[in-house]
Amino acid sequence: MQKKNTKKLIVALMIACVTILGVEFAQAQAPEDDVFGVVHVKNLDALLPKIGAFIDQFQPGMGGMVNTMMVGNMLFHNPNWAGMNAAGDFTAVILNPMKFPGNPVAILAPVTNKDEYLKALGQTLTKGKETNGVLAFTTPEQKGLFISVVGDQAIMTESAEVAALAKSLVDGKSALLSDAHVVKGQISASLSMAKLMTAMQPMIDMFKQQMLMSLEQGTNAQGEAQTDQQKAEAQAVKGIVEAEVDVFLSLAAQVDKVQWGVGFEDNGLRLAKSVLALPNTNLAKFMAAQKPKTSDLMGVIPADSAILMSGSIMMTPEFKNGYVEFMKAITTAAQTAQAADAKTIETVATWAQAILNAFGGDFAAGALSPTSETMLTEVISVVDPAKAKELVKQYPEMMKAMSGLYEQAGLKMNMALAATDTVKSGEILNYTFNATADAIADPKEQEVFKTLFGEELSLPIGFTKGYAVMGFGKNAKSQVETVMNAVDSGAKGEVKQTPGMFGLSEEHNLFMYISVPKIMAWAVKNIPDVPAVDMAEGPGIAAGARFVDGHMEGELFLPTEELLLLKKLGEQMEAAKSAAGTEEPAAEESEDESGDDSADDSEEDSSTTK
């Protein structure tokens, strides 16, 4: 009796195991599990003229080559779009590249008449057999093409396996095929980072180890084996790179989806991006805590700066802890060349945690203003001014603790608090470095240093009414005081560039403006040998990012006018390079001729002497 019960129990357990494994196997093999990305194109017929018009502005006449007939012939092997709807929406499904190597992409195109569509394909392709609703064709280039029509959609791919999987997705009306995108644009794409990271993890680990081994087992500049000091430096570099890579991979592992959008507008190109985090991750908590707002600080920054930035970032506990751990790793790696000191590492970590708590998240910065000698000006909100000032005074000591690697490499980063000045709106801490104009031997380089930084490299940091102000470059202290006075007075100041001017939201977490003509004008004015360029000031390039409903939305707007200026700049630089190239051979020829004349004269002299 006992044996019978035992047998029944074993059989029951076997059935349970098979059932459970069968369920798990079925789940692992679900078609949706292999869908890594989806791309949507809205109304291809209307989009192609926009793309053509955009191209024509840079290469006149080339835009006309992007037309419905060309795309129909090159992509769909149906130039007349027989039985198809060119004005419909198109979808590309990207499958697991590890499981479907080669071309893991299936295109879904709208079909209005199946018979007309297949008849048209039969005129341009060689028809083969049909298997489970998938027709095999061969292109004139002898490539395989597999097509299946399901309802009003044609599935087209170069792989029979991909065609079968895509067909099952369409048959099952998979929600992934209509994945809602939060990005704007006639073209939108969504990539599952979670699936990609899982599938690619072995390869990522392999590449990481190979990279770290190459950093650790390098040679010196002469190709010889490393000295003990060079080995120590290589070990330190390896540690720093590993810490940075680990942070990046940790963030990537917390991302659910990344989405992109491309929009062709009358006056430019708009690129959009969104990042959606996996639930309950530190990244999700960070995104959920952010609140977009309009910047109150941009007006105190020089309005004519070539580069402008403003934003508001709330540093969550998870963010602070992650940053502190990163600082520990960096400090440990930097000290590897000497000896990692646990006490020093902990001191740096404690300081990093405290300084994150002392500073707020609102900031604005401007760089390369033609009317200001200071290269960079930045202002950031402070939660606890007294504490922030005390921590900033400790910065040279913390910098020294983190710079063991650089000292071993012969680069001494000496930073010191030279003076503390009390001004009308607060206090300025004046930091200096071991870099002066007098230490430069080359007179030309010395003049460049004086133009950019004055007699000595310095970094003034001022504190006033809940804000810290930093300046870098010549006369930075005066610039810092000017900004401190503006902040202290509550003046809004002039704001020439706003997000709304570029179709971006005024309430943002990050806004950035860049003007290439302004950058070039600044460079021509301040740096010797930079060739003058004939460029009018354009609208500039703008980017913005904000966190909404727990995810990040970013946009980059590229005005056509600014892109044309970039094209013109490239042409002028290429012309200058070509001109310089044609002058050099002429100079060499002159030298050769001179040398030949000298040789002839020498021979004549020699003959006369004889």
Describe the structure.
This protein has 610 residues and is an alpha+beta fold. It folds into two domains: 151 residues, no CATH class; 370 residues, no CATH class. 44% of the residues lie in helices and 25% in strands. It has a 20-stranded antiparallel beta sheet, with helices on both faces. The radius of gyration is 32 Å and the shape is globular. The N and C termini lie far apart (132 Å). Keywords: Signal.
Features:
single chain, alpha+beta, 2 domains, 20-stranded antiparallel sheet, globular, disordered N terminus, signal
Mind summarizing the main beta sheet? Answer: 20 strands, antiparallel
Radius of gyration: 32 Å
Number of helices: 17
Average pLDDT value? 84
Tell me the distance between the termini.
Answer: 132 Å
Helix-strand makeup class: alpha+beta
* Poorly predicted parts: 1-28, 586-610
Give the number of domains.
2
Spatial shape: globular
Strand content: 15-25%
Task: Lay out the secondary structure.
Elements: H1 2-28, E1 35-41, H2 44-56, H3 68-74, E2 90-95, E3 105-110, H4 114-124, E4 126-131, E5 134-138, E6 144-150, E7 153-157, H5 160-171, E8 187-192, H6 193-216, H7 228-252, E9 255-265, E10 268-277, H8 282-289, E11 307-312, H9 317-334, H10 342-358, E12 359-367, E13 374-382, H11 385-393, H12 395-402, H13 404-408, E14 415-423, E15 426-436, H14 443-453, E16 456-464, E17 467-473, H15 476-489, E18 510-514, H16 516-526, E19 541-548, E20 551-559, H17 560-609
Antiparallel strand pairs: 1-2, 1-8, 2-3, 3-7, 4-5, 5-6, 6-7, 8-9, 9-10, 10-20, 11-12, 11-18, 12-13, 13-17, 14-15, 15-16, 16-17, 18-19, 19-20
